[in-house]
Amino acid sequence: MLQAVTTLALLTAPVIGMATPSYVLVRSVLDFRRAKTGRGYIVFKTLASLAAWLIASWGMFFMLFVTVYSAA
User: Fold this and answer.
1) What pLDDT digit, counting tens, does each position of 29-51 carry?
2) What's the CA gap between 69 and 2, in Å, rounded?
C-alpha cells in the first residue's frame, strides 16, 4: 500500500508541477485578452504567481538535493 502511494505521488508530482504554471499562463492570457482596463494588474499578478511558483519549486528541489547528498 505504501509503495503504491509513493509511486502515485512520484507520478503526479511532475504533472502538477507542470500544470500549475501552464494554467497560470493560459488563464492570464485569456483574462488579458478579455480585459479592457486593468491589464497591468493582470501582468503583475501573473509574474508574481510564476515567481512564487519558481521559488516554491526551487525550495522543494533544494531540500531534496540537500537530503540526498548530505546523507552520503
Assistant:
1) 999 999 999 999 999 999 999 99
2) 24
